[in-house]
Amino acid sequence: MSTYIFILGKDRNLSLAELHARYPNGKFDGDGDFEILEIDQKIDQSEFNHLGGVIKVGELVAIVNRNNLSNELTQQLIAHHSGSKLNYGISVYGWSEKNLRSLLLDMKRNLKKEGVSSRFINQQFKNVSTAQYKGLKGKGIELLVAVHGDDFLIAKVIAVQDIDSYSERDFEKPFRDMRVGMLPPKLAQIMINLAGDSKTIWDPFCGGGVLVMEGLLMGRNMLGSDINPETFEGAKKNVDWLGKDADLFLHDATQPLKGKKFDAIVCEGYLGPPQTRLQSPDRLKPLLQELDELYVGFFNALVEINFKGSIVIALPFFRCIGNQELDLKSTIEKIEKMGFVLNPKILKYARHDQVVGRAIYRFQYR
To answer: Is the pLDDT score of 274 beyond 90?
Structure first.
């Protein structure tokens, strides 16, 4: 068994839901901006690349009290000294970053006493960023200090988010359509993980194929369909650009899909036309009716083919005038009456300035 400390992304609930779904047999503990996971599985950069909701992960190497923290950090750093200049970084969680300055200067003095020439990479005495770690990897070490109760947990960073790879897949793929919701690759990964260990996944609203692409990179067999020929062709171009193969086809999601085998559905449905300003709830009623017809039709089609697998679907919610929020509550109630059981924890994803956000629902047919 190994113990890891995961540094969570800005959407804590999403990050935790993803970790619990991907590691259902793990023992979890933690609070705030990190989670402790004890598990009989190796976590490395390759495995970490399949997680969209966490920033970095470290493997636990020591647990100490406050009085022994400086000495233990010094010993951990010396153990990684190869004879040349030691480059290192220290990041703290569950503890104010104000403590970093004295901690880093303590390390510098302690290492000098031990005859170790060293340099810390923390800029302005702040936590190490993923970009900074990229320059450190292979040339030094980053240690995490996570305060949990009265304990100070020390972990060696073993993986961080590959921000360059995400950026490439998000912005450099050949087809992008700004007229529809641009699903971030990280969120696509989270949604795929929320479907559990499903091997073959269908995205019935695939658009430009973001979910299909991320599923392929995560080793899943992917089916993708869309009713729009233009976006369907775009999805094919994007999958070809990725150098992968998927089963892509034109299909109306409100009609039963027959002759295809899959054990989970993961998708982002139609969110409606782009919204640039807050509306009143009354102005949104026609759009809600349109979305209701679409999604009731889609779930009726699933009933007709007797689909029993997991369904993870992102549907819109709307921020309205007067600090109100509007979602597809009545539509969800209709879906539940068809026999689909809703996971009670609804996850939301939206930037603070977005008018339209994503509510992520998880269903299972009885």
So the answer is: no
What phi and psi values does residue 316 have, to the nearest 5 degrees?
A: -80, 150
| Residue 270 to residue 340: CA distance in whole angstroms | 20
pLDDT bucket at 84, cuts 50 / 70 / 90:
confident
pLDDT of residue 366: 84
Domain ranges of the chain: 2-161, 164-365
Mean pLDDT of 16-36: 95
Cα(350)–Cα(315) distance, integer angstroms: 12
Q: What is the CA radius of gyration of the chain?
A: 23
Q: Give the number of other CB atoms < 10 A from CB of residue 299.
A: 24
Percent of the chain with pLDDT over 70: 99
CB 141 within 8 Å of CB 61: no
Q: Measured between alpha carbons, how far is 263 from 269 in angstroms, rounded to an integer?
A: 19
CATH entry 3.40.50.150 includes domain 164-365: yes
Beta carbons within 8 Å of 15's beta carbon, 6+ residues apart: 6, 8, 9, 35, 53, 54, 190
Helix H segments across 23-68? Answer: 45-48
CATH 3.30.2130.30 for domain 2-161: yes
Residue listed under structure tokens 């479907």 = 195
pLDDT more than 90, % of the chain: 90
Residue 181 has pLDDT above 80, yes or no: no
pLDDT of residue 351: 86
Give me the amino acid identity at 335.
Answer: I
Which of 363, 284, 345 lies closest to 317, judged by CA? Answer: 284
**Do 223 and 260 meet the contact criterion of CB atoms below 8 Å apart?**
yes
Closest alpha carbon to 271 in 299, 291, 251, 286: 291
